[in-house]
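Onboarding guide, step 5: your first structure request.
Type a short instruction followed by the sequence, for example:

Predict the 3D structure of this protein.
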Amino acid sequence: MSIIQSNKENFTNEPKSPIVTESFRLSELATRQLLIAPNAFAEFQQQTNLADFFWQTTYTQTILSDAPFNHLARSVDGFVIFLHGWDGSHRIWEDLPARLTECLPNVVCLNADANGFNGTFFLNNTPTPPEKASLLNAMIAVEKWLEIIGLWPLPQRSRRPFYLFVGHSMGAGMMFYKNQPAWQEDRYGCYIMAPGMFYNNIRRNLLYRLVATLTRIPHITPLKNLAARIVVHIAMKDASRLAQYEHINTFYNSSFPTLIATLDGIGKSPKPPRTDWSQYQVTLGHADILVRVGATVNMLRELGFTSDQIKLLVGDHYFFSYDETSPINHKYNREVVLNDLVAWCGRLK
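The system replies with structure tokens like these:
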């Protein structure tokens, strides 16, 4: 795997197989001719309206090889793809990718910036048309990214890696729109946390669209910035300070067209066309004011989810985020989520 040096971090002192995180951009891989085709990046931009795509790869040095990404798929057990929520970034996952890799040394974690935020931004910082920022098109962009770096789909062979998608809020909502027919030959799973998808909830649908409409008013920019802090305090007051800061910082640095279109896209999310949900698991926080438990369970039941696919933990919208300022329940939840991911990988393997 060819590495683009940026922000290398060691997460363990073990000398045999330290855990390393590397940062990547599609534009840089295209320049180095490491995508599946010379015109792949231009096609990605045209299809998604994204100017670039950023992610971090977390792995153990024992599986590092000086070859393109698609060669890596021949030697690892699987890939875990992390997708953050609205107004977030790859940093909201804190050390979860590193801890998962530590538990599963032959698994590679891909922690992406998604849907116009942070290092994955739209051309001219404007989704054109606005529908490019929908949950459906955000998921299409993720699958296209995996395709052009050569990780999926892979040729038929006796041993192929599994894929576990881990999403929170908007990132979780995106996963309801995975291309079911395209993945039928693959081993994959979707671990969904506090999904931001409200096709059957009129009040939540209207709320997100109303906030998006108000954000269009240019003369209340100071109020928008204040609103960002208020929302963080109310919706994720028990999250780590890192996660809270990342949301505020991302809000300040995101274009208003991106903030508007992605909020509107969550509010307008249609009923997913998928018919088989057996590869999905949903975890909710009991005090989540953004993704209410009752309405979400009703939606999942309508789609065909069963009781054993739904888990409730004590916490708010960021029930998995923890530092010394968070409730002790969040620390417990973090271990539950980590154990769930390890178990999911074990089943897929």
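Each response can be followed by summary notes, for example: The beta strands are 9-10, 19-25, 54-60, 78-83, 107-112, 162-168, 188-193, 280-285, 310-313.
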